[in-house]
Design a protein that fits this description.
Radius of gyration: 11 Å
Helix content: 10-25%
Distance between the termini: 33 Å
Structural class: alpha+beta
Shape: globular
Order of helices and strands: HEEEEH
Strand order of the largest sheet: 1-2-3-4
Number of strands: 4
Length: 58
């Protein structure tokens, strides 16, 4: 983990953990290095997985 990553998380710049990334069959998923929140990779790139954070599923 980077030393300044938790500070970046406070301003909304999350970075995925490369060593903890996996493919669940539909998308690539990982965890943020600084705050540990779930992340997902879509066409725009990596961002926080809001559905996993709130527990809402379709």
């Amino acid at each position: 983990m980077r030393l300044l990553q938790p500070i970046y998380c406070l301003v909304g710049k999350h970075h995925r953990s490369r060593s903890r990334a996996w493919n669940d069959g539909t998308a690539f998923r990982s965890w943020c290095e600084g705050c540990g929140r779930p992340m997902i990779r879509e066409f725009e790139g990596w961002h926080l997985d809001v559905e996993a954070s709130t527990g809402k599923r379709d």
